[in-house]
Amino acid sequence: MAKLGGVKEVEGSANSVEINSLARYAVDDYNQKQNALLEFKKVVNAKQQVVAGTIYYITLEVTEDGV
């Protein structure tokens, strides 16, 4: 059993609709705030920490300007 507040891997994160949606949102938010043109490619890894809510740590792959 994981200790309370511990960070753990999200199994199947590369295929998770929820994790992919969060990753796409993060890229869109970054693009808007930084006036950038990053394009989401895929989730590489994801971890989560449950405290008062859930914190996700997502490693993702992007391309810049369609490259």
UniProtKB/TrEMBL annotation:
Pfam family name, one: Cystatin
Keyword Mitochondrion assigned: no
Molecular functions per Gene Ontology: cysteine-type endopeptidase inhibitor activity
Annotated keywords: Protease inhibitor, Thiol protease inhibitor
Domain Cystatin residues, every copy: 2-67
This protein's record includes keyword Lyase: no
Recorded family membership: Belongs to the cystatin family. Phytocystatin subfamily.
Protein name listed in UniProt: Cysteine proteinase inhibitor
Organism: Hevea brasiliensis
